[in-house]
Request: fold
Amino acid sequence: MSQQPDDDLNKPLPRKSRADALAWAKQYTAAMAHYAETKISNDPAPRESFEECIGRNDEVADDGRFTLTYAVYAHLPQKDHIEAVRKVRTALKQHGVEITSYEERPARPEVLLHGFHNKEHFSLIADSVKPPNLLRFSVSTPCFLPPGAKQQKF
Reply:
């Protein structure tokens, strides 16, 4: 959960079902691959991880709130990674994503991009991973409360 002032501890959470969160994550990672001008592969398979939300004081609610991290992979010659992620970086900036860190390592060649969308509170990664010639696109959602669930108060 993001850091909020104490008076916002019980601020209403955004609502989304797990299925809707997964569909959104798939759409966003597909857009990142599109910006990179590459295609998502099923080898390795996409990875999804739903987790309970943890509060700033380590509180864990039992109201069904969750976060999702979803990652997909694209096969792309390693020499093309930097240029592909530069395109992703440009497109993300145009869509309101703040690039929080960016590193190019031309000698390898590898690239690492971290971003955060301040309005929608999701983070993302585009980076070179192993084995060589593999590019990862990943998004992590904010804490969502399932539709119809009553938000627990702290």
